[in-house]
Amino acid sequence: MARCDVCGKEVTLPFKCRYCGGTFCAEHRLPENHDCDGLDEYWNVPVNVKRRTPPQPVKRRGGIGLMKYGANNIVLVTCTILFFISILAPHEMVYLFALHPQIEVLLSMPWQLITSIFLHVEFWHFFVNMFVLLFFGTELERRLGDRKYIEIFFVSGLVGNIGYIAYSYAVGSFAPALGASAAIFGVMGCLAMIAPEIRIIIFPIPIPISIRTALFLFAAYDFWMMIASYTGVFYTNVANIAHLAGLAAGLYYGKRIGRRSVRYDFYF
To answer: What is the pLDDT of residues 214-253, one digit of tens each?
Structure first.
């Protein structure tokens, strides 16, 4: 059995000093407790100390060009500018920028497929659309980013316009169409798929309901209005088919993206 080099005590589990090579008990195992010849080496082990790098500011990923101001904000500002211009020249704005569903017109003015999404000429149409877009557009952009938001907004609006063109030829009515409603329905549809926990209040319903339930009610109303207008029960100047087509595009996007759950309540 090994003995401690200092006290001579027999130890079952001896400690061997890494500096002097001696054998010691638990009491004398440390270099300073057995007058270790390598004590100076023990206390002066060279250590490479790295100079601390001062913290660097976090670089946020900025938007490109106008996108740094927020995609939804740009949409809101664009719609607002066009609305005030339309107050000064309503007929010219409708002629140039509203969607005229005749193919021959679109071939000569194809930009109407896009510009009509941003154009409003009636105050309540403009106000309600911008109010809804302010809340739901901002929320969708926050969750998905500006590029994906813009993609969903434009594609939904474009699908809504294409749906309206097809419907116009089906029923033989070619009234001009304008407004961001189809794009907004797409935004809400996508948001309903990725965040079904969002709850909203719709006047005059006094209690919060899920965004999916709200969209179902909106879609049912638009479908009923479309059928009533087609059958001659009464006439409406709303492009209900565009709403439904835009909603379908948004639901498709939301289904592909998947659920991103953060609970929020909205009141509308």
So the answer is: 999 999 999 999 998 888 787 778 899 999 999 999 999 9
3-state secondary structure of 128: helix
User: How many structural domains does the chain have?
Assistant: 2
- Do 179 and 111 belong together in one domain? yes
Residue 147 domain-assigned (yes or no) = yes
The predicted model scores a pTM of 0.70
Task: State the residue range of the domain holding 32.
Answer: 2-39
Task: Indicate whether 89 belongs to any domain.
Answer: yes
Displacement of CA 89 from its chain's centroid (Å): 35
Residues 249/183, Cβ–Cβ less than 8 Å: no
Amino acid, res. 60: R
What's the CA gap between 3 and 169, in Å, rounded?
A: 105
Domain shared by 17 and 119, yes or no: no
- Calpha distance 108→116 (Å, rounded): 15
pLDDT tens for 28-59 read: 888 777 777 766 665 555 555 455 555 444 34
Contact yes or no for 23/16 (Cβ under 8 A): yes
In a domain, 59, yes or no: no
